[in-house]
Amino acid sequence: MLTMRKAPVRDEAKPGDDDAQSSLTEKAYRTLEEMIVTLELAPGSVVSEAALSQLLGIGRTPIREALHRLAREHLVTILPRRGIIVSEVNIMTQLRLLEVRREIERLMARAAAKRASASEREAFRRIAEGMQTASSGNDDIAFMRLDLAFNQLLAQAARNDFATGAISLMQSLSRRFWYIHYRQVADMPLAARLHGAVALAIAEGDAERAGAASDALMDYIEDFTRATVAAD
Predict the structure, then answer these.
(1) Is 21:61 a contact under the CB 8 Å cutoff?
(2) What are φ and ψ of residue 58, in 5° steps?
(3) Can you give the pLDDT at residue 14?
(4) What gap in Å lies between CA 2 and CA 145, rounded to an integer?
(5) Residue 43 parent element (H or E)
(6) What is the dihedral of CA 151, 183, 103, 199, to 10 degrees?
(7) Is 77 found in the same domain as 113?
(8) Residue that is last in its domain, among 86, 106, 139
(9) Are 113 and 63 found together in one domain?
(10) Are 167 and 96 contained in the same domain?
């Protein structure tokens, strides 16, 4: 049952307004992705386009497009005429995912350190500062939002569409796995600091340090993932 949010005034794009339609789709995607990652939409729950449209106050077409994007990222499964199921969580899937993610994120961190624009470097510096603040305050929601901003900026600054396409299929699953288990076994302040170290190395244009910081972050995430087995 979807009762966690009060529906705002419905957003509708006018026919032919491609920019508005794209904006609403992105809004729907970001909102639903956060709801799934933070377990507001729990693993195994069944939802529908109509219910989500009413809940978020966004038309069904942007909701449908957002759901198809979430399906490509394995966060939902769309069953024709039966509804949409939020995907379950599987530790072996997560470990296989991390094998690939480690290699791609190292490549992207090094590439971003070399290719980021001045404005992107400043944005990475702000993210590093925000991660430090989230670490000091043990603020999990701030960390999750900064993590999403970091992922999006990294994809942009790396200037490699192939790497971006591959990593986009993994990040939301990883973020949700983190959110499910971090209260049991994670050191959120350490995770924030490790993310901040990658962001700062990119901001300073140090490709070698960015790659090493990315590996250190992946080491931590793999240790965290394996620790969830013992915790369960």
Answers:
(1) yes
(2) -125, 140
(3) 53
(4) 23
(5) none
(6) 40
(7) no
(8) 86
(9) no
(10) yes
